Amino acid sequence: MGIRQELYPKELAHDKFYTPPACYTMSTQEKDLFLTVLKNMKVPDGFLVRLKDYVCNRAYPEGSIAEGYIAEECLTFCSRYLEGVETVFNRPQRNYDIIENAEVYKFSSGGRVLEKVESVVLDQKSLAQAHRYVLLHSDIISESRREFLIAQRSLNHNIRPTPRIEQRWLVELFSEWLFKQVPVMMERNCSEELIVNARGPNNIVNRYDGYSEWLDESMLNSSDDHSRKRLCIIEVH
Length: 237
What we know:
Strand content: 5-15%
Radius of gyration: 34 Å
Number of strands: 5
Oligomer: single chain
Helix content: 40-55%
């Protein structure tokens, strides 16, 4: 048919055929260069979305874009000279890094409340989970955990404790054992923080609809909307 004769198979010796490459076929070096150009290419996709938000009158999109762009530039320019007014340049970020009253939080897990606060009564299962988490991860109770494991090994001398068995002892028995040690701690003049942790948390908690950072205790509660997590702060006696 005479169409692209340069791409026709070429007959070689020993009844073999060779298909020549097309004009758009690239070598390995040319492919690498082409991909590098695509990677470094800058296109105004993100800015075009911003310009699209300026369109209020679909009959005159160009005029709407021009008016919206000029209005935003004017507001940005004027806001730099305003004092005592919250603008995009001086308002705090959503994820605020400066934590107020950071000393009241455990495990350096403070944050900033974003929405309303309500007091609720925590159920026994969630209360036990919160207390167990603090007892198993707080550094101030590390010595008590060591004493507990020594006592359990002496009581169960007929078995060889493995890390898995010791972890089960801590999860199931440690909180009750530590609560019984409160009188002994008071006689030893132990720290108030250690005694408070041994007694356990209060079942009345504060729950927030929004928080700028996860708390360690927040894994106890989650809302239906994954983008907004509900959490509780456990208050001790």
